[in-house]
Structures are given as structure tokens and as C-alpha cells.
Amino acid sequence: MLCSYDIISGPEVLTSTALKKGGLSTGDVAAQYKYKNTVVDVKVDTESNISTTLTITDIVPSTKTIASFKLPDYNSGKLEVQYFHHHATFTTAVALNQSPAVDLSATLGTPTFAFGAEAGYETTSGKLTKYTAGLSVTRPDSCASIILGDKGESIKASYVHHFDQFKKSSAAGEIARKFSTNENTFTVGGSYALDNLTLVKAKLNNHGKLGTVLQHELIPKSILIISSEFDTKALEKTPRFGLSLALKP
To answer: A GO molecular-function term, please (predicted)?
Structure first.
């Protein structure tokens, strides 16, 4: 059972959430305070963890600075700086501990073409912990992209084509390769909007895995999703089913 209660008063917001599952009860109390270009979020849970986030907008024009930490974990602090431009975004995040890790990401592009990359650097070892790069080309009726990931160990190319201007029906294809194992995966799929509230999706790969999704908007902003996965090369195996309900006020 999930219960939530909100109190809003001017720039202040107080939220209380409680969850009971079996004989276990958990909960938290969160508060948010806004003043000009500054937002402070504080959350306290039943395990006495205190999470604090400070967000300041436009210290320098077109930037957002975010500082966060969680007590009693003194090594959880992180400082993040984001820069936004009409055709570019840059983000830098640094862990606030004795052996800080640095994450960098950047995106450049236009409504038609976009390029992005991210990397992680461990200052103690002096090594890159991750790096990924990708580019995409978008047209009114289609979109194609290529992503190089896993520190250059994998590459993925995909293409989506929409059959009508309202994007009610579309088809997609994807090719993925892992260089370390020489494994290739080919996936084809599609989606079709039965009406303005209901969407059906399906995909099948060369390993015989068939996945389906039914998405229905029960009320505005509240979506019911039913999913399933079958192994068409081993029909004796029990299929997997999933059910989720997203409710938004």
C-alpha cells in the first residue's frame, strides 16, 4: 500500500510518502524551498538517511549548478555543472571524495543532425572508466543513428521509419555487434497506434526473442503497460510477462 501527501505553500513544498509491503513499512519526508534562482531539496527516510540537493540556475548565463550529498555517507557528494546553448549542451560532474571520478558529456547538433559523447575518468588510477559516442540524423519521416559504446567494444546502428505524418505506424531495424565476442544481433520491430490512447509494439531478434508491449492511457497522464517476452526457439520455456501502471497528477 502506498500513501502520499503533499502540502504546497508559496515557494515551499512538503511531501510525505509511506509504503507498506507485507510486514515492512518504509517512508520518507521531503521538503523543497525555492528562492529566486535557487532550489533546495531535502529528504529524510525511515533509515535516517538525509539527502540534500542544491540547484542554482544562471550563476553564469545559460548554466545550472547542482550540488548533492547524502548523510551519513560522506563520500556521496557530487558537484555538477551544466551549460545549455541552442545547438550544444555540456555537462561536467565531479565526485566530492578523496578519489574523485570525473564525468564529461557533450552534445552538438541541429534539428536534423546531432553528435554526442561522454567519458568517465578516474583520477586515482589515471584511466578512462568509460567512453561512448554517437550520432544521429533525423528527418520528418525517419531517424538513423550509430552508437559506439562499452569503451569501443560494441557498436549499434538503428533506423526508424514512420509511415504517416502523425507517426501512428512505424518500422525499425537495429544491428548490434560486440567486438570482443564477435557476436551480432539483428532486431526488427514496429509500432502501431490503434487509437489516440492505445499503442502496440513488437520486436524480434535473430536469437528468437519476441517481445510485445501494449500501452494504454487510462486517464490523462496515467498509462497502463502490459509487456511479454517469448523465446520462439524454445517454446517449452515459460514466457515472461510484465505489468506496470504509471500515475501522474
So the answer is: porin activity
